[in-house]
Amino acid sequence: MIVTKQFRRSRIKQRIRKVVNGSAESPRLSVFRSNKGIYVQLIDDVAGKTLVAVSSADKGIADAKVNKIDQAKLVGKAIAEKATQAGITSVRFDRNGYLYHGRIKSLAEGAREAGLKF
What we know:
Number of strands: 4
Structural class: alpha+beta
Strand content: 15-25%
Helix content: 25-40%
């Protein structure tokens, strides 16, 4: 059996999701990374609802002419600001099978700097 990047990522994702579950008090911060952008949402797994979502295609972030790592940091800060407005202070980080470096790490650091705890 050929182990592709997608298959490997799906196995890592399953391993993470066994442990990381979101609730209303501490939702799951789920990250999706594409070649062009990065997308983040806070998910309440108990109710099955997305509470807050931010992407690199949003107005203030897309207008900033920065590289992808700095753009991910801006997305992290934006999700933290929206979360604090919604009354959420702590989250559970779901890196969604991606390795914790580069854009994923930058996003997490930006969210921590802006006040989210995880």
